[in-house]
Amino acid sequence: MAALVKVASAEASSQVLVFLRAFFGLCVVAPFAFSRGITFLKTTRTRLHVLRSIVSACALSCFYFAVSQIGLAESLVLNASSPLFIGVIAIFMLGEHLERRAMLALGIGFCGVVLMLKPGMGVFQIGAMVGAASGLFIALGKIFIRKMADTEPVLRTVFYFGVYSTLICLVPLIWLWQMPSRFAIACMLVAASLGTMGQVFLTYAFSHNRAARIAPFTYVTVAFGGVVGWVFWGELPDGVSVFGGLLVVVGCLSMLSQPQLPDPWQAPGTPDRAV
How far apart are CA 141 and CA 241, in angstroms? Predict the structure, then answer.
């Protein structure tokens, strides 16, 4: 998905691409949702669905902008930094007390983020800063999903994300709409299909396992992104970015392994189930 977004970003703005992603994603998932009947679509968690869609749309906007500005692997690392922000949210918003080991992991991860922002160049890279912001918005989105996990099945959650994010992303296009090329539309149609499939798989996986069990597999995307970026765009991250990315991954995995850190995917009182 990220590679197709990078291709399409040469011919359309990130705002248009995010709208196409949301709209085409809704087109993909809607037939499956409607096939379950109107009763299946009834929900009492509309407010949480809307909030989740707002922060997720912001995450997509930041991620797509970062993909168009910096390397594919770098943008994927920053996008996957959400566990670090969950740790910060746990401290300042949830009043959680983290042990020294968790604080060390948090520090290591954020040191990696700072290195990837390239502060030695005099100014932080805007693309990297926006990419890091996508990690923050993803962290908030995970927390909202966690709050809904006790009543909302995966398909309903993904369906309402498509509905509300499409409406949300449509608003700025009243002023910023630019007709994308047919090639960009085709790229985003495929990207939305892949992204929606990935969203369903990830939501299902995290709904049935603790994050610490699943997270190591999600960082495989960084390796894929590195290979794709090198083959198609000749992107080779410098030593600072590679070292920073490793620190981010180590910090995130260490944070997810902390038993006292709230697991945003584990519903309260539910066992650590295997798939």
Answer: 26
